[in-house]
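Make up an example, fold above all:
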Amino acid sequence: MPTMRHSARWNFIREIRFRKLFRYLRFTLSYHPMKKFLAVIAGLIVFGVSVMLFEQLSHMLFPPPAELVEAMQKDIAEAQANGAGMMEIMKISQRHAGGMMAKAPVMSLVLVILAHALGALFGGALVGRILREDTMNVGLTLGAILTILGLVNMIMIPHPDWFYLDFIVYIPCSMFGANYTSKL
């Protein structure tokens, strides 16, 4: 029967082995290039979900005008009845979305910018939590991708001129989130 001293020594040796194995796995997985790619994809997904939730809040506080919504639904129903394809329906939606943006209250658009900032922050935080190393570069990558997607959004749906301030939130927020959570 092993003595207490023998079992304590065995537990200590087993713990050292597990620490070495964990350190080895953490080292090999942390430098895998696919991990950075998947972290950016996960950051984009978190950005999309959080922006969707915050914009729903904005729509609850400032609902779009009912006549514009009804006009859009009527135009889409007409286009579907005439056999229009998906691209024509998308163009109708974009045209009406531009009309809604023109009539949206300023506070509603400020909440959209805040939603984009918080989404970039949460996406960057997830990137930092996943990677722990090289977070500034990957946070910059996430912010650059979000800036390009924001530019596509601005081209597709007309926004007020002051809304271009939205571009300055993506890169700093994603880099701050990635850098801050990597140190936790």
The CA atoms of residues 46 and 123 lie 5 Å apart.
